[in-house]
Each structure stands twice: as C-alpha cells, then as structure tokens.
Amino acid sequence: MSLISTLARLEAVDSGLAQPAATVRHRHLSDRPLVFVPLTTAGETGAPLGALVGTDRDAPRLLVVPQPRDRDLRFAFLADLADAVLPHIDAYAASVEAAERTETDPETGKRVKVEAELCADAPQLIVPSRSGLDFVRLLGRSMRFRRTAEQDPDAPYPAPPRVPLLGRWLTHYGERARVPGSSLLLALTDVLSRQWATGQSGLEDQHLGALLAWIDPPRGTTGAEAARRAELARDAAGQLLCPPAGPATDPAFDNKLLAPAIERYDRARTALAAAEDPLEADDRLAALTAAERDVRDLVESRTRPTWDAVWQGLDLLRALPAGAHVEGRWTRDRWSFTGHRDRVLSGEPPQPRRDDAVTAANKLATREREQARLEAQEALDDPLVMAERRLAGEAFAGEVTDVVPAYTEGRRPSPRPLVTVRTADRPHLAERAKVYRSLNGRPQSAEFVGYEDDGVLVLRILDKMGRGKEPEPGSVPARGDRVCCTLFEHEQRGGAKLPDPEETPWTHGGPPGERAPEAPDTVTEEDVL
Amino acid sequence: MTTVDFDPGAAAARATDAILHDTLHGTERGVVVDSPPGAGKSTLVVRAALELAAAGRPLMVVAQTNAQVDDLVLRLAEKNPELPVGRLHSSDADAYDKALDGLPQVRTSAKAGELSGLPVVLSTAAKWAHVKADEPWRHAIVDEAYQMRSDSLLAVAGLFERALFVGDPGQLDPFAIVGSEQWAGLSYDPSASAVTTLLAHNPELPQHRLPVSWRLPASAAPLVSDAFYPYTPFRSGTDHGDRRLTFAVPSDGSGPDRVIDEAAESGWGLLELPARHTPRTDPEAVRAVASVVRRLLDRGGAAVSERAPDRPAPLTADRVAVGTAHRDQAAAVRTALADLGVADVTVDTANRLQGREYDVTVVLHPLSGRPDATAFHLETGRLCVLASRHRHACIVVCRAGVTDLLDDYPSTEPVRLGTLVKFPDGWDAMLTTYLHLLEHRVSWRP
Questions:
Q1: Cβ atoms < 10 Å from Cβ of B86
Q2: What pLDDT does residue A216 have?
Q3: Residue B328 to residue A393, Cβ atoms within 8 A
Q4: Per-residue pLDDT reduced to its tens digit, B380-430
Q5: How far is it, in rounded angstroms, from Cα A183 to Cα A311?
Q6: Which of A217, A487, B25, B346 could form a disulfide with A226 if both were Cys (CB 3.0 to 4.6 A apart)?
Q7: Is B202 part of the contact surface with chain A (CB cutoff 8 Å)?
Q8: Distance (Å, rounded) from C-alpha B110 to C-alpha B89?
Q9: How far apart, in whole angstroms, are the C-alpha atoms of residue A442 and residue A7?
Q10: Chain A contacts of B199, Cβ < 8 Å?
C-alpha cells in the first residue's frame, strides 16, 4: 500500500467516512449497463441458485432454480439467462461504425491499415463483487462446450439452443476482465474501492454493503457504524439484515430458510409425480407452484438488496467525471467485443479449455502492457494519483526557474534547451535518467542533467520541438511555468511478435498439432441424478 | 568443513570439461548448467563461446540485461582479441557501453543483418526477440536462464538449433506485474522461468552443476549452500584462513565498530537494533547502515585473499556495497551516505545486485521493522542474492524480532496442481540464515 493510500485509510478511520482515492472516475460506465446479481448453491461448484439480471433498475428479471441439483432445471435457468443476456449483446453487435485497424500483410509482412468494422458501443456487464467475476467465468466454462440437439443430434443431454453461445460470451467477458483497465465486465466493489479509501481492509472492501456504508452512510450514522451493521446485524430470526452480495449465501439463510424451502419443493414434486388422478394432480400442482414461489421469494429477498446496492454504487460513480483516458481504454474494449463477435460469426469453435503456449504468452504480454498503460494514464488523468507517484519518487512537479537555449553539435544543430526546475519532491533520478511530461497529450522526453542545488534540478529537453533550429513556440516551458514530469513512460511500446502457434519451438513442446474441436465435458454420475 | 580430500580446482575443472563435452559433442539439443553464486558462470560462458567459435559454429549469446551483454563482450575481447564479435543493441541512445567502441574486433549495430557472418553475436533477450532470421544459428548460449521468463525464451527459441542454458537457480525468479495464476501448472506457464519450461518439455536434457564457489569465503559457503541449495550443495574454493580482513584503526567500542570486528573475524555480523515497527525507510536502520559503511572505510581495512596472499588490498569504496529489498530504501541509504560524506559505494536492490561481487556487503534485512512478512519479503532468491555477494564479510542490519515475525507469518502461498514446489521455501531459508546470524549478533541502541 502506498503512503498516500495508507494516509487516506487513516483519515477514513478518523473521520468515519470513506475518503476519495481519486478525483476522477477511472473506469468507463455505460449508460445502459447490464447488471447481473447471481447466487450459487453451497456445496456444489457452479450450481446457480438464482439471479437478478437486467438493465432497468426498477424491473430486474428474477431467475430461480428451485432445486439447484436438478440438471434440467439448471438448463432451464441457463436458457432463461441466455434469453436475458444475448438480445442485449446482439443489439450492440448490430450497430457498427467504420474504423481502421493495423494488420500484418501476409504477403509483404508489413504493417498496413485496413478498413474494419467497429461496434459503435459495447454492452457492459456489472457484477457486485470480485467473486461474481469468478462465477461469470465458471458459468462460461460450464456452458461453452455443451452441445445443442442441433449441433449433435446424438447428445444424450442436449443443451437448450443459445446456451453454448452464452457460455462463449461469458468466457470472453471473464477473460477480458483480467486485462487491467478494461471495463467490459466490472466488479462494482473493485471500481468503488479504486475511487474511495475506506477505514477497513481491502478484503473487507469486497463486502459491497459495508463498502457502500463507508462511502455513503445513511443519514445520522458514521460509515464505520453503518459498515459494522451491514456486516453483522441480524434480525430476530437470526438472518443478516444486509445479505452478502454473493454469489455465496449466508449459511444461516441456507440452513434455516433455503434448505427447508427446497425440501418442501422436492416433496411437492414427488407428490405430484405420484398423483393418481387428475383432480389430485391439480391440487398437488398448486402445492408445487406455491413451493416454487417460496423459493423464488427467498432468492429475490437475498438478491434485491444487492441489486439496489449495485445501482446506488453506480449512481455514486456516475457523479464523478470520467478521466481523460477512460474513453480511449473503452475503445479497446469495443475492439475486444467486436473481435469476439467476428469470431462467433465466422463459426470459430469455442475458446479452448487451456491456452496454448503462444496464446498464453501473448495474453500475459498484453496484460502487462495494459497494466503499465493504466498506471501511467491514471496518474496523468488524476492529480491525486500523480501525488502518489510523486511521493514514491516516480514523478515530480515544480516551477521552472530558468531556461537556457542549447543545441546539438553537428552540421544541423537541433535545439536541446536546458530547463531548471525547483521542486519540493524527491524523485529517484539516476544519472542521465529520462523523464517525460505531457505536452498537449503527447509525451515530451527530457534527460536529467544534474542537481544545481538541493531541490533544484536541470533537465535537457530532447524532442517534440519541431524540425527547425529554434524550438516551436509553446514546445519548451517558460520561466515561471509549473511542470510535472514522470520517470515512467506515458505510452507503451508494443512487444516483440511471438511465433505462430504452429511454429512453437522445441523448448516449449513444439507445435500443438492440428486443433481438434474440444469434446464436451464427459457426463459423470453426478450429472444424472 | 574439511578440504583435505577435496581439490576444488580439480572438481571445478572436471565439471567444466563435462559441460563443454556435452555442449560441443553431445547429441541433445540443450544442456543446462546450474551455477551457485560466484562459481565461475561468466568464465564458463566465455570459455564455451570461444570453443564453439573455434569449432566454426555460428553462435548467438542471449543475456538478460545490457550490462550483462557488455560485460560478456568485454570478457570475450580480453580472452581472445582476435575473435570478431558482434554486439547487437537497441536503437535507444546509450544502448551499449562506450568502452566497446575502443575495441577494433567488436562490431556494434542495431540491425542483426549488419552483423551476419560474425562468429559470435551477443544481445539481450528483449532485442533478440525482434530479430528475424532466415536461417537459425547453429548454437546459442543463454545466460542467466533462471532469470529469463518462459515467454521470453518462446520469442527467441526459434533463432537457434541447440543451446547451452546457464544460470543460478537460487537467485530471484522472474516475475510478472499482473496475475498469472491462470496458467499455473501448465508446462509452458509464460511467467515461469525459461529453464522450468525447457526441462518440463525436454526432461532428458543433460543437467550439470558447478560445484565450487570461488567468490564466497569458507565462512559463507556452508550457510548459503545449506539455506538456499540444500539438495545441490557446493563448497567454497578457498579454505578458512585463505582470506583475511583486518583494520588499521582499532574499534571505538560503538555498535558499528563491534559488528565490523565480528564480521571481520567470522565472515558474518548482525547489527541488531531494538525491536520496533517502522516505515520501510526506517530512519534509524538506514543511519545504522550508513554508519557501518562510514566506519568500514574510515578504519583502514585491508583484505588479504588467495589471489595475492602477500599483498593486502585496501578496502576502498568500490569494494563495498549496500543491498536492500526496496528501491526507496536504497534511495534513503544513498542520501544517508551522502550526509556522512561517503561517495562511490554501490547501493542497490537485490534485483540489481544479481551477478555482482564485492569484498564486504552491508545488508538491510528485508524483514527489518516489518509488521508482516509478505511473499515478496520472504522470497528465497531475494535473501540469497543479498547474502551471497561478498568475498570476505557480510554485515546485516536488522530490527530485533525477526524470529517472532516468522513465527507469526508461516508461509501460506497456495500450492497449485502441476507446479514444481520450490525447496527450500523463503520462510525456511529466512529462519536458517537468521539463526546463523544470531550467533554473530551485536545489539546496539543508536
């Protein structure tokens, strides 16, 4: 934890209220995000219990699996989820604009611009917390290799149509969420704790109710009190007043309310199956419907508070202005969305279970590049983040006290003016270290020449001064100007091109061979209850 | 340790001969050499390069940093001034050491094409990754292969047919700045070390080990070997008494002087400050480090080693280094040294001290003053680097209470399916070294 975020947390403890950790919003927020609040069943990985999903805060769609261990009911839930999510995705996929993309020409090997379609906007998916992200990945993994009756008429348990497709999209969103700075799929607790520092630990910040309590406590209480209440307060029946944001549920809820309700449902179903005449069946069907409604009500009672909390959090975030580079990063998300849309349209198979060596290395390289880009852009967008970097010795701000024209030696001298800066910061400048400042949004580099005095340093400006002998007006700071220079680069260089997967070298196991379409997961005994 | 039946020179020569035989005449595509600290890794690389060049096999050398590449070029030039050598460098300003410009047989270029046909071409892994070759090199030497990431080897492995991989498994593992748990357990996990991936796919490759550390004194090799290389022990090339550190000015009885005397006598010294939780740049500990350095230089130290048993070498600023865990700690120590009027003493983090050698090192213990022990601070390689840079003595400055801290923070890194669990873990290595250091403790309240 940096010094400044430690300070912010201490101030939060002291004041009882979360303190801003940023002055602008560092993630993109869609005007129409799709909010997804899932719940899972304790004891069985990837068995959804229910979910609230939708784009209208007043009218979420409730999906429930009244017996989570029943595979047919689970498929019905997934089919309903596909009905709720895929039309939203399709709407965005259909609206495109013309754009340019750089590609490597297969014949010449040169980088060339080609015209391409870019989706005008991309659908954003919001889950309450980080474990929600994992659940999205898990759902994607459990669905994308399923076969529908259409794909495979012999499949013993065909998946409803569109379920495998939803699995591919959720997998794509889950993978994209691992790219630093991306906003296609966001965990609200991550975004909120990027913007505010609370008086609790990072782990406790994953409790959406407690986090919101610190940021926006009910009138008359402090954040600390409200957070404590959100975490611990229970009603007379021993149930949490603020249910956890899921997907895991509170054990007291599972044991006291959910398990008996599911058992009633099971009994009603068995009774219905055993009904001997239509009249009896009618009665028992009514009992089954009532039992199912009980489970639905229970699931809604545990998801609705989280649903409302998510929208409250979104309101808080919308009140903040977006950082200058947020739009640019969202464009990358749109490219990512468009790319996956194209892969689906062109009939490519679902994402493989495991990345091959080249794909894994490419993904890691992209993410490292995006991480560095994100760190630089957040600092440039936000003086509070820059202050953190300045305190860490990775940047400095100060006043220009002198500018001396100087030139390169040679036949055509170019300007290399010396700029003296007085700063109270203590940057870790090595001999001839490069520093960068933002000049109209583009990085101008300079070289550290030396200290003239304690806190007075001299820089030699190296570029962005035009082609002439004299620097272009405005390209060199003047005496009295405030400048802020960073020791880190503002833009990231692209990495080296890795070999194609077919040319994986012997050190990494050689080419992976012809990729066979992946078989769906084998059916186990547990799948056929 | 007894060295009666052990001739370090002969043991090292046997190992080197076996390595060169496998490299030049073996049938496998790769040879892996594990080298403990100061075991003559660079010497081996230079010798293998010269022999491969002499055998007429075009050779590319992959190192990890520009400083390492320049160092190898200079060593090659020193050993064989006749051999034409290519130094492939980036197109940045100051891409390589200007000393290379003074060597007529060294050709430098930012374009691989301009260096084609030279018997040996050297560059960093990052630069090689951008090279496209129509025909692969017959042979490659990959230096510091344990510090190279698997994905970085993936980018260059297509450039060569066969390779000699040399490195120190005990030093810092490569790291990624983003999470890579997703690939943990895959044989080609891109964040793993190059050697891990190489051996996972080619388990039949011959693996060798250099058995003798020429750098570490007889007082240090057993501890470093036990703590960091428990299954691949090594010995020091010198015996007790071969190296001596003496001071002309007697001790003034202060903490720094007493710990200097202890370290001069036994090879290790622990200057223990009172227990306290502190910020990373603990001002008292930083000042203590600086005063130890100041006194080391003021007391007229003289180092006698096996290189010149009759001529003590004065302990000058360039023979002393300070090692820390974090960059801000290094910066704080530099400032404190400047305040005491000390210049030219290297102060750096473990990452940057890898591969370097000094007579005396002063180390700010990674756990000093910490309330917790994170995976970063417990990393085996970090402590191993800090504790194995010295030829004579190592002085550690630390707040008391490390053993309690270790008791409170057992290592809890998850074990993942399919990954090779590394032994010893950092926790264990920390405890072993600290218990040894406690025998050489000087308690001091500044």
A1: 23
A2: 94
A3: yes
A4: 889 999 999 999 999 999 999 999 999 988 877 778 888 877 777 888 889
A5: 17
A6: A217
A7: yes
A8: 5
A9: 32
A10: none
The whole-angstrom separation of Cα B112 and Cα A294 is: 73
pLDDT of residue A527: 64
Compute the distance between CA of residue A515 and CA of residue A502 in angstroms, rounded to an integer: 10
Q: How far is CA A67 from CA A71, A273, A288, A302, B173, in A?
A: 9, 15, 12, 17, 48
The answer to whether A5 and A21 have CB atoms below 8 angstroms apart is yes
Nearest CA to A336 among A188, A119, A494?
A119
Write the residue in B126, B176, B187 that is nearest to A364 by C-beta: B176
Beta partners for residue B106, in sequence order: B85
Q: How confident is the model at residue A526 (pLDDT cuts 50, 70, 90)?
A: low
Six-digit token string for A327: 């739009």
Q: In this structure, what are the phi and psi dihedrals at residue B241, rounded to the nearest 5 degrees?
A: 95, -20
Give the tens place of pLDDT for each residue, A42-70.
988 889 999 999 999 999 999 999 999 98
Summarised one tens digit per residue, pLDDT across range A203-252 is 899 999 999 999 999 999 999 999 999 999 999 999 999 999 879 999 99
Nearest to A28 by CA among A142, A174, A183, A238: A183
The pLDDT-based confidence of B366 (bands split at 50, 70, 90) is very high
Do B351 and B172 form a contact (C-beta atoms < 8 A)? Answer: yes
Pairwise CB contact (< 8 Å): B201 & A506: yes
Q: How far is CA B6 from CA A102, B10, B17, B239, in A?
A: 63, 8, 18, 11
Contact at CB, B154 and A392, closer than 8 angstroms: no
- CB-neighbour burial class of residue B147 (10 A; exposed 0-12, middle 13-18, buried 19+): buried
Q: Where are the beta strands (DSSP E) in B48-151?
A: 59-63, 85-88, 106-109, 120-124, 137-142
Task: Report the gap between the CA of A509 and the closest CA in chain B (Å).
Answer: 5
What are the structure tokens assigned to B159, written together? 């450039």
Question: Cis bond leading into A247, ω under 30°?
Answer: yes
Report the alpha-carbon distance of residue A222 to residue A277 in Å, rounded.
62
- The whole-model pTM stands at 0.90
Percentage of the residues of chain B whose pLDDT score is greater than 90: 71
Dig out the tokens for A436 from the structure: 């960068």
Tokens of A295: 């489970």
Query: Which of B28, B130, B183, B326 should we substitute to test contact with A (largest number of A Cβ atoms within 10 Å)?
Result: B183
Tokens of B60: 């590319």
Average pLDDT over residues B56-66: 93
Best residue in A366, A394, A508 for a mutation probing chain B (most B CBs within 10 Å): A508
Pair of tokens at residue B369? 């003053």
